[in-house]
Design a protein that fits this description.
259 residues, alpha/beta, 8-stranded parallel β-sheet, 10 helices, 17% strand, binds zinc ion
């Protein structure tokens, strides 16, 4: 079985197709999915999904790309994170690609999430784009990692270098690969995946975005995480069932869940 460690099933293009999506998960042996929050106004929808299906989990957080949205604070995040279906804080992080200018608010928002994660012991889901050195620096300054008494977490939809991956792993983080890993153009990223231990890797769709080959360009959904696993198995020269077992065990270790 496979676990999709990152999807956005509350987005309308997916939430309107839930029965089909559940059927595709079953067909592809995708047993669980983590529904990731991107802002506070839509958080109730994310939580409702997790409450509606025994094999869905959820997170709470505000994405760095959401500029005009209610700002989270530590007590508010902690209150929402108390729910047993909330297994992570995020997605959070830094994105200097989508937004430019003075992004101090993004860094402050990221620090808020790390402080909430440390306080409740639930791991972080970190998004980083064109901002890896600030991301790693703030993770270190705020003690996000298990090496500093934090809850650790995952660098989601990873597209950075091996050095960045290693810095995150040194802090006790996991690295999650999306469908990008299956793209022919992703040779440098494929080399990163080959160099990392399978014990530190998660798989995700980030659906509705980034559908893996052979669905590239189409709408993505959690069932397609199997194709990310296939790409990873080929790159690492291991069986698909080894990838399934290890990445699922990694998910359970990180998020402290038993399936
Ligand atoms: Zn993201
Ligand atoms: Zn996401």
């Amino acid at each position: 079985m496979f676990i999709d460690s990152h999807c956005h099933l509350d987005f309308p293009e997916l939430s309107s197709r839930l029965p089909e999506i559940l059927a595709k998960m079953q067909e592809n042996q995708v047993s669980h999915a983590l529904c990731v929050a991107v802002d506070l106004p839509d958080f109730p929808k994310v939580l409702a999904l997790a409450e509606s299906q025994p094999h869905f989990f959820a997170s709470v957080g505000v994405h760095p790309d959401y500029e005009d949205t209610p700002e989270p604070d530590v007590p508010g995040l902690l209150r929402l994170a108390e729910h047993p279906k909330i297994i992570a804080i995020g997605e959070t992080g830094l994105d200097y690609y989508r937004l430019t200018g003075d992004l101090e608010w993004q860094r402050e928002r990221f620090r808020t999430h790390i402080r909430a994660s440390r306080a409740c012991g639930k791991p972080l889901i970190i998004h980083t784009r064109a901002a890896s050195s600030d991301t790693i620096r703030i993770m270190q300054e705020e003690g996000a990692g298990t090496d500093a008494g934090g809850a650790g977490g995952v660098m989601h939809c990873f597209t950075e270098t091996l050095e960045v991956a290693q810095a995150a792993i040194d802090m006790g983080f996991y690295i999650s690969f999306s469908g990008i890993l299956s793209f022919k153009s992703a040779k440098p990223l494929q080399a990163v995946a080959q160099a990392l231990p399978l014990e530190k890797i998660l798989i995700e769709t980030d659906s509705p975005y980034l559908a893996p080959v052979p669905y590239r360009g189409k709408m993505n959904e959690p069932g397609f995480v199997k194709h990310v696993a296939e790409a990873l198995a080929t790159l690492k020269g291991v069986s698909l069932s080894q990838v399934a077992e290890q990445t699922s065990a990694n998910f359970c270790n990180l998020f402290k869940v038993t399936l």
